[in-house]
Amino acid sequence: MDVSELLDGLNDKQREAVAAPLSNMLILAGAGSGKTRVLVHRIAWLMQVEHASPYSIFAVTFTNKAAKEMRTRVEETLQSPVGGMWIGTFHGLSHRILRAHHREANLPESFQILDSDDQQRMIRRLLKAMNIDEKKWPAKQLSWYISARKDEGLRPKDIQAYDATEQLMLNVYTAYQEACDRAGLVDFAEILLRCYELLQQQPTLLRHYQQRFRHMLVDEFQDTNSIQYQWLRLLAGGENNIMIVGDDDQSIYGWRGAKIENIKRFLQDFDADTIRLEQNYRSTATILKASNALIQNNSERMGKSLWTEGNQGEPISIYAAFNELDEARFTIGKIKSWLQDGNALTDCAILYRNNAQSRVLEEALLQEGLKYRIYGGMRFFERQEIKDALSYLRLISNRNDDAAFERVINTPARGIGDKTLSHIRDCARNESLPLWYAAKAVIEQQHLAGRAATAVTRFIELVEQLDEKLVELELAEQAKTTIEHSGLLAMYQAEKGEKGRARVENLEELINACGQFELPVEEEFSSPLQGFLAYTSLESGEGQADEHEDAVQMMTLHSAKGLEFPLVFMVGVEEGMFPSQQSHEESGRLEEERRLCYVGMTRAMQKLYISHAESRRLYGQEKYHSPSRFLRELPEECIEEIRIKTQVSRPASTNRFSASVSHAAFEDSGFNLSQRVLHPKFGAGTVLNYEGSGAQSRIQVNFDDVGTKWLVTAYARLQAI
Ligand SMILES: Nc1ncnc2c1ncn2[C@@H]1O[C@H](COP(=O)(O)OP(=O)(O)OP(=O)(O)O)[C@@H](O)[C@H]1O
Ligand SMILES: [Mg+2]
């Protein structure tokens, strides 16, 4: 390929960066200015012009998917394969080095990676052996302490305990590390730290890699943490050159130890030059102007200005939804018209602050038969905590459900170990019994030692008691009681950090899902619980689109980093949701939330919708939120507010779940309770309920063929018959 072609499609500043002489460089630039593009072209340039071998190139990306894409883009640009090039995440690349040098790293050849569940299970075992009360010292909190120390590059010997509390955590760290080393196990944080230490302690090895990786490149540098920075510094400390690209305004992992200051440290430590890119190629002028205005409210920015030659584009639409269901309906409606206009689903993304928010949207998409893909996360009913809770419910409603039994017998931990379980499994096999009955038989035959027998008996009693309790309750209460009494809630509440919080929120959202569940009329179930369980298992098996299928992209704002989509919806942009409640409590968090909002808005290329709901039922509670402060920070000329206009206006009765409906409200709708109506798609039905007022009002109809549905009155096109 011709050299000039490598520089085609780049502006002057980008060319300057791509064709710069070998040196250390920082590309500091706002969203959509072509940082990632520059990185790709730089790699191609190094190979083509500097005659660098693919073996000498080492590139770090933020996700494995980004690594794959980058490799493909380099190959496309060069039109040749670049197999020997090292490209991956910090974890992936460190792991690769550890595999190659496991002996020097004091690891067995077959060393295994411990995921966070395994890690906690291990800590729990140690706590027992050390006689430490797990209620006071939850395993999750300890694992968090250990990982945070490792992320700072600290081993137990490097830490001076402040007080008795820290001393205890330190003792657990020590014991945990010994146990991992004995068993040949490494957790995520260990992968980085171990690799760092390996390179530090083995000068020959370090020199080897320093000489080999002449060219190092790092994307999304603003989100590196301490150990990653030290690791880079060590590896890039020889004859090699390093180019980092980043945007201080997009640093969104401070809560996980990322340090924006690393950008400034880099400039000093590496004596690097800075190149700024200022032209944005991604978004319309309107989207860009609004994002710039938003981020200007942060202090201590490194300062960048972005401009575009692109057209003005449409204003950003802001939709004030009545509640989360209305928000989902609005979003899906817009996606349908996008599709009808001949566009692809895959070009639109729905972005939300918390994983739990996806459920209502998933259901609305399923209802319309639209494919979707959840990116970087699991579908709601496949999440660990949700599966735990559903397994209790399954076992309660069907004692023969062995999979459910296996999942919950020792979750939360109740001292039932592998030995006891294998006794039960043997008995089940020998006597052809489901595990539940085998467990009972094993107890009756007194085949278990005292403690194990007590633990199993307690478990059996727990499930039987729950079964009795549930009889009288409604579905949502059944779920709530089960989640609380099983100990699942307490277990997940004890998990500290963002993940633990998310799990508890998801459990609460499950209760919410039960509350909103409507039994399908066309199928027969012995109870609402049976119906709900059937629905969840179908739900989790279907709908998720295959990789190449055209599907709506759904993800958290965090996972959207680096990506772009023609059409973007940001949902749930309300005070208390986004910025999140917690961000008021910790200093600096509000600015991080604003950066997250900036990341979200700058994903949009052509059109951006932002919505907020007046009332939102999430985590099992209905809350009233005001629109996010971030919305007030957007210039008026960039936005348009969408309201559904009707002549009727009336003080709102906003509680969708209130059982009593005033007659006046019904009259507003033009329909009466139990009136027969005709819908163009769903056919004939009977009016059951009515809520809200004016534009926000909706009506519940039990259709003869398709069952009960809530419809927005203004859109429903119902006719009296
Ligand atoms: N000189 C250019 N001419 C035309 N299109 C460009 C140019 N530079 C970048 N682009 C396009 O602009 C979009 C944004 O580029 P890119 O993803 O590299 O930006 P970025 O700075 O890495 O963004 P982010 O901060 O979100 O990661 C891409 O679609 C890219 O192909
Ligand atoms: Mg990028």
Structure description:
With 721 residues, this protein is of the alpha/beta class. The chain folds into five domains: 180 residues, 3-Layer(aba) Sandwich (Rossmann fold); 72 residues, Orthogonal Bundle (Arc Repressor Mutant, subunit A), CATH 1.10.10; 163 residues, P-loop containing nucleotide triphosphate hydrolases (Rossmann fold), CATH 3.40.50.300; 149 residues, PCRA, domain 4 (Orthogonal Bundle), CATH 1.10.486.10; 58 residues, Thrombin, subunit H, CATH 2.40.10.170. It has 28 helices and 21 strands. The strands form four sheets. Strands 9, 10, 11, 12, 13, 14, 15 and 16 form an eight-stranded mixed beta sheet that branches. A hairpin with a 6-residue loop joins β18 and β19. The radius of gyration is 28 Å and the shape is globular. The termini are far apart. Bound molecules: adenosine-5'-triphosphate (ATP) and magnesium ion. The site of adenosine-5'-triphosphate has 19 residues, from α3.
In short:
The protein is of the alpha/beta class and 721 residues long. The chain folds into five domains: 3-96 and 194-279, Rossmann fold (3-Layer(aba) Sandwich), CATH 3.40.50.300; 112-183, Arc Repressor Mutant, subunit A (Orthogonal Bundle); 316-379 and 544-642, P-loop containing nucleotide triphosphate hydrolases (Rossmann fold), CATH 3.40.50.300; 382-530, Orthogonal Bundle (PCRA, domain 4), CATH 1.10.486.10; 663-720, Thrombin, subunit H (Beta Barrel), CATH 2.40.10.
